[in-house]
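Appendix B.2, paired examples.
Example (i):
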Amino acid sequence: FIIFTKAVAEADSDLKGEILITQRFFDVQDRYTESEEEPGLQVEKEVDQYIINKIYGSTVIVTNSSSSRQQLQVLVEVPEGTIPVNSLDYTKSHNITLNAFSTQTIEFFFYFPQVGKFKVNPPNVSKRGKVVAVGKVIEVEVKLEKTYATLETLSAVLTKGSQEDVLNFARTKNIWNRKVFDFNAI
């Protein structure tokens, strides 16, 4: 009979800046848009509002800016108040090897089952038991339904706009680009 346990414990830090970590969030169903400055360039949208019972994803990007190969452990967590999707892990440690001047990404998915304000614990990177990089702590507000402050997207115009707003949107946006203007949404 063998028992294997793994625990998360506070560690000393050694933040030198050779390892960089950042975290981005995205809407799984509406992840990309086309750049208005550079037509044809696909860019990832930032999540402007979080809605209950909608699946979101997170990409954690780890970069080795040193000239040597690194064996690292990356600790990621779904935000507080969420339920993980495609996995049972609320917290997970990934062992990665990064060559000199290289980057690796880790993705995970989750949803918020209730309305409220929730803290997102930052991802962190450790090496030989010492934390070498930490992401930012952020807080998100989760709402029951999406609200539109401006009429910049087709969804906002169709939900809150007048007939004149719809016509103005069609005049000023590239209606032939399916990512900007989806005729099926009308």
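Example (ii):
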Amino acid sequence: SAVQLQAVTVSAGIQASQQRSIDIKRNAPNIEDSITAVNIGELPDVSITDSLQRLTGVQIDRSAGEGTSISVRGLPEVGTTLNGLPFITADNIDSIQPNYGTLPATMFSGVDVFKSPTASMLDSGISGTVNLRTYQPFDFNPGWSVTASAEGARGSVTKKIGPSVDTTINFNDGGIWGALLSASYSDLTRNNG
């Protein structure tokens, strides 16, 4: 016999990802734009800057064809946080933002761009703040999850082939504990020739 469903709720997939992005923008107390993992994954983005350039008001600077830094509304004073905490790398010791070209897009579950600060955003930049959201163990279905990607690039100027590999291994038991390991390796030679 046929069973009639009262409602169908989509909890994963493209529609759910788009709905999360819309809800984030709708409920934000400031001007905010967001990219979710599905948006990042469906685009052929190598670095997180390639994903960020698709947001309204965000421009990227390139070096040797790869995105390295961003501007919001034409101003480069953009603060960066990682999961809401100040993000400092060797790349941004002498500047306000890291070299986004070294951050693979596959390592992030989403990115929020705050175009207007609120009082709680002490580490915000003058023109905006980028919050990079990494995957957490409970973002995945219970049990083991493994994702990997590999690619090679050959420069027309350098004539060298460089590999790039990303992998994420995750386990969670459905609610009590979980562990996530994410690694990235890249050996690319770039030249502005």
